[in-house]
Amino acid sequence: MTRIGYAAIAAACILSAAAPSVAGTVRMPVDSVGYATTPAAMRQVVDELQRCEYDRLAANEKTDRRIGSRAMIGAIAPHDDYLYAGPGYIHAMRGVRAPLVVLVGVSHAARRQGIEGKIVFDDFDAWRGPFGDTPVSDLRARLVEALPPEMVLVSGEMHAAEHSLEAFIPFLQYTEYHTGECRFSERYRRPAPAILPILVTRFPGERMPRAAGLVAGALRALLDERGLALGRDVVVLVSADCVHYGDEGWGGRNYAPFGTDRAGYERGVAQDLDIIRSSLVGPIDTGSVSAFRGRVERDDLEWPYQVTWCGVYSIPFGLTLLAELARLEGRGAPEGVMLRYGTSLESADAGLRAAGLGTTSDATLRHWVGYAAIGYW
Considering only CA atoms, which of 316, 332, 323, 318 is closest in space to residue 275? Predict the structure, then answer.
């Protein structure tokens, strides 16, 4: 198994195949262990996750009626192995109804390569998934043209080697989900989507909100030309895992400020939940995004983390993009709702091993990852 990505974080953001392959203009899957690769496996994944998360899904819908009845305009979802992070995926991806999906992902290799101040676009026509090929929207080319050239990097190679957006493709291609307080007799179907994939690198200080604002302004103009609205037509999905914790398997680094016993684990989880509650749920604006950056980011290319979240760049960029798109559309501030939090230690396999899925790293008190699913309406 080949592990791709810089040593400090890649151990939990594993790419499990050999060197990534490109077939013509189709971006081929990289992770053949942690994600579903066949229609039968994906059907089993979705059915099993909806079954095991039935009570929590139903409770969420009763608590907030938007969850079952209205399409999300955005979400934060994990990108780790389905065996670990699957419950988070199912909570986030059930709310996606739009046919155009803007994917905002982590570039695990950018820091190691010294790349910053760039929005990275792919150059593929489509991305391969278990149900065939998902097309890339034709808006990508026009968006690239509308942005300052110095801010844009077009690199199929970086996208081909990065798994943080690939994780979404099987769930986007699976178009039939349960709804209506999770009653299994009720289902909805959504159209097969087109995607607009973006990888985010470090933008120092105030350059981050300015860059996200430029992308939002250019994209909003293109959406307006076609009469496309958030939720109904467009959704923004942000790829991010939470804390990477422990003192083993992290490239020689110690990510265990609270220790590696059960008490340390509980303090690490509590820290994650506090970051989420204080900056990622409720109305999202410049203040909440700044609060997240203040908790998680060091604003340093050499070592960017105060807390080792995989979404240190994708979350502030993605939420600023979403908030600005909403403002330009004349909507109120996006409001985040916590759908689920879990870790690689407590996520059961939910029968997913029967679908042929595996894991690309161990989960112990000395090596674990947190996952949040947060929906925005």
Answer: 316
Q: Please tell me whether the overall predicted TM-score, pTM, comes out greater than 0.85 for this model.
A: yes
Q: What is the pLDDT of residues 168-226, one digit of tens each?
A: 999 999 976 655 444 443 555 667 799 999 999 999 999 999 999 999 999 999 999 99
Q: How far apart, in whole angstroms, are the C-alpha atoms of residue 78 and residue 239?
A: 6
- Asked if 9 contacts 310 with a C-beta cutoff of 8 angstroms, the reply is yes
For the CA atoms of 148, 303, 371, 42, what is the dihedral angle to 10 degrees? Answer: 60
Model pLDDT for residues 363-376, shown as the tens digit of each residue: 999 999 999 999 99
Q: Which two tokens stand for residue 292?
A: 């997240």
Chain CA centroid to CA 178, Å: 21
Distance of CA 229 to the CA centre of its chain: 21
Rounded Cα distance between 89 and 339, Å, is 10
- Residue ranges of alpha helices (H) inside the chain are 39-52, 54-63, 66-69, 82-93, 139-146, 156-160, 169-173, 207-225, 262-279, 286-296, 314-329
Q: How far, in Å, CA of 250 to CA of 376, rounded?
A: 32
